[in-house]
Design goal:
Layout (H helix, E strand, L loop, with lengths): L7 H11 L3 H5 L8 H16 L8 H28 L11 H10 L2 E3 L2 E3 L3 E10 L6 E9 L10 E6 L4 H39 L1
Parallel strand pairs: 3-5
Antiparallel strand pairs: 1-2, 3-4
Helix pairs in contact: 3-4
């Protein structure tokens, strides 16, 4: 059965080979970084690592090894932060080795006071401010999902809505008032008509 345990040198070399490959680390694909490009780069990394003493793996297996190392390192950091919060601060309770620090600097997680935002789900938030003299803010919150990106940032779009001219509002109000007055006049005419008709019928009775 082949040896599947990587050596310390293979692990260090894997981290070194990935250090400057930000697209490969994030797993985000686009016009300048395709799946084919990622496959070629992982195959080159696999060739280098398989030439060293240790285990032999396919490029997909080496990619899975990196994902496992990355997840374990983030877990160690989260455990340390959680333990320090539980004890009110203090020294690290989980020892992060130099290679762990190197991995954390590569994946560049967004830190918010002990909260590690590295998940694939983010929100696109659109904020529209109504310029009508008030401080009302309209927020449209649309959830989106980004591929396995480690440094995905939440785009926030802020747009001002131009102030609506007050003249249009006055015109609408004047039109409504004129329509109401017209209805009132018609009702008065009908009422006087039926009063005269009733009086005429009473005289002829």
């Amino acid at each position: 059965m082949p040896n599947m345990k990587i050596s310390a040198n293979q692990k260090a070399t894997l981290i070194e080979l990935l250090k400057d490959k930000t697209d490969l680390i994030s797993g985000k694909f686009g016009p300048h970084f395709s799946h084919a490009t990622a496959k070629d780069e992982w195959e080159a990394i696999a060739t280098t690592l398989n030439s060293m003493p240790g285990c032999q793996k396919t490029w997909k297996m080496w990619r899975s090894t990196w994902q496992h190392i990355r997840s374990r390192t983030k877990l160690k950091q989260s455990e340390d932060l959680r333990n320090r919060r539980a004890t009110g601060g203090g020294p690290e309770t989980v020892t992060l080795k130099e290679i762990d620090q190197n991995i954390l600097s590569m994946i560049k997680p967004v830190m918010v006071e002990g909260h590690n935002i590295t998940g694939p789900s983010v929100r696109n938030i659109s904020i529209e401010s109504v310029n009508d003299g008030n401080d009302d803010v309209i927020i449209n919150d649309n959830k989106s999902v980004i591929s396995d990106g480690e440094n995905s940032r939440t785009p926030i779009h802020v747009r001002k809505i131009p102030q609506r001219p007050h003249g249009n509002l006055k015109k609408n109000f004047d039109a409504a008032s004129a329509y109401k007055q017209s209805l009132d006049r018609k009702n008065d005419i009908k009422e006087r008509y039926y009063e005269r008709k009733l009086a005429l019928l009473e005289r002829n009775a």
